[in-house]
Amino acid sequence: MCSAFWPFNGAEGLLRVLQDLLPTDVSTFGGDIDHVFWLIFWIVGIWFVAAEGVLLYSVIRHRKRAGAHAMYLPGNTPRQLAWVLIPALVVLCLDLGIDRAGASAWEREKGTPPAGDVVVRITAKQFNWNFTYPGPDGKFGTADDVTTENDLRVPVGKVVRFELQSEDVIHSFFVPDMRLKQDVVPGRTIRGWFEATKTGTYEIACSELCGFGHYSMHGNVIVQTPAEFAGWQRETWPSRTAANDAVKGTETR
Amino acid sequence: MMEVADSHAQPAGFVRRYVFSTDHKVIAKQYLLLSLMMAVIGGFTSYLIRWQLAWPETDIPGWGPIGPDNYNAIITMHGTVMVFFVAMPLLLGTFGNYLIPLMIGANDMAFPRLNMTSFWTLFTASVVLTISMFVPGGPAAAGWTSYAPLSDNPIYTGVTWGQNLWILAVALEFGSFLMGGINFLTTTLNMRAPGMTLWRLPLLVWMEITAAVVFLLSVGPLIAGALMLLMDRTLGTSFFRPDGGGDPLLWEHLFWFFGHPEVYVVALPGFGIMLEVMPVFARKPIFGYRTMIWSTLAAGLLSFVVWAHHMFVSGMDPRLATPFSVTTILISVPFAILVFAMIATVWRGAIVLSTPMLFALGGLATFIIGGVTEFFWARPAPTSSCMGPTSSSRISTTRFSR
Question: For the whole prediction, is pTM greater than 0.95?
Fold first, then answer.
């Protein structure tokens, strides 16, 4: 099937190339979003080919030739207008279908988040991502908080709830592999969630122009097995008793 | 009628005739010249951006290497220049001024001196913007959307006068097109030749005045916003500064309430030109003239209630995304009608592939691409996975790359 005109390995080859356009999804809600993406892709893809095809056909077929006359077609009777209005009506119906499919995907990602297994506060600043875990006591703002820079460690298969805060300008928390994007606005706390489905390291890229270091504002989501995550917690988080002692000392965030 | 009587008498002096002229045709050519000069700046910045993307951090011939802060300034200038100082003067200023009086049978614009003032305000704005590129602290580097607080507080970018002058230039540009829009509208409504009813107006005139009305009604909030931003920067107010009780999202709303209609302000005149060219070289009348006008008006009206589709993930209440994406998707219906009617206009014609016709057909083919990609950006969920709020600049680029 490979040829100069069809560089793919059959129809399946084309589909595989298309699927590789998006990074593999590693979140629970990413599948819904990809579904909407492909739904729109095929609907508008068909319309695109049809509209350009009709236009191209007309431009080639209806060129001025000797003896041929243009057809008088002012399009001011309902009968003639139907050629335009009926396709537009079909567009309207497809619109509503896309709206329906899109709304549920959106509601799942941005609506009320499910109960969280891990809670983390994400603080964006020029040009870093800081991740603060509440520590063993489960509360932010106490001495046993654990803060990491640019590396967000989370267990696989657990709901992670996050709060986004910015110290200076607007940033945007974007994890392409999870289809997750949320602007971080100074003066607000914006809540959200995700659940990773696969272990690995995934890029966080700031996707709102935030100053001269915007290009370098990267981070990683490191998705670990629950055992690995618990191991990391044991190594780096203060123990419960140590935490209690620390509370008496200076409060550091 | 006094004006009409002497408007064809040529003023004697060179300055009155070619520089501070009140003749709509001379002013149109001035707009053309100015926009082409600004297009040199816009095009050069585009060259710098492309070179940097292709061969990062190498010496760019005619410029030298560019660092991250220069890069931000360059994309800011590119967006500002292309949208406000090339597309608008070319499509509204040039074609509107030249063609509206000729097409409706008027001697000149309704307010010739206002027309002249409008051009020279734009000229001043262009000079201010050009100066802003050379002041200490560098040019504005907060993007053409200038989101606060990045644009609001100099400590975040290090840009001081560059950003102030950017705001001033853009505000002057808006003032200029406000005057121009009033002129377009008054001329078209009051100065048509006898027998030239509204339902006989050439489609280009319909497109130009719809664009003018959309611009008039949407730009007010942004002029206010620009003044507030300037006050934040110079007088110590905090409209957009959270530490003083302001809200950065307010700027985004004010910007996009204008920013989205702006897409149609520059799109509609382009359609108008295509719709004048196609019937001529297809040897056919326009298909569905009235239907096209109603669709254009519907699109103009809908353009006021879609702005938050630039802000799906901005931090606004996510429930707002649903109504805004529904209106955005609905706007595809009038545009679909326009596209289908354009195809029907060339259908079974006797098409002459002259240069203008090739441009018009190319414009239509390109607009179909711009139109179908709109769907991805109209839905919040896929938007969140592939696009940021700068999408509109890409859409407009796609649409007007002709």
Answer: no
